Amino acid sequence: QHPLLATLIDQLEDSGRYWARRAEIRAFNATNPVVRKGLALTPVKFGISFTAKHLNQAGALVHVYTDGSVQVNHGGTE
């Protein structure tokens, strides 16, 4: 694992209260039989490497809801 990536993940975990939020979600899911919540932090690093410059563009649609949840739609593939 790249040291810069490890540092970035640590910072994201801290600033986003990742582990505390995971514990809160686990507790919520244990007491609610209908609604399930989840949270993940998934670092991805890849290069596009298309030879045509116009194919090297990217975009994403990000929705941030008032309850704090986020939805991300993108055209990327893995």
Residue windows where pLDDT falls under 50 for at least 5 positions: none
Question: Helix-strand pattern, N to C?
Answer: HHEE
Q: What strand line-up does the widest sheet have? A: 1-2
Total helical elements: 2
- Could you report the average pLDDT, rounded to the nearest whole number? 82
Proportion of residues in helical segments = 25-40%
Radius of gyration: 17 Å
Proportion of β residues? Answer: 5-15%
How far the N terminus sits from the C terminus, by CA atoms, comes to 18 Å
Overall shape: extended
Q: Please outline the major beta sheet.
A: 2 strands, antiparallel
Write up what this structure looks like.
With 78 residues, the protein is an alpha+beta fold. The protein is 35% helix and 13% strand. The protein contains 2 helices and 2 strands. The chain has helices spanning 3-15, 18-31; strands at residues 60-64, 70-74. A two-stranded antiparallel ribbon has the order 1-2. Strand 1 and strand 2 form a beta hairpin. The mean pLDDT is 82.
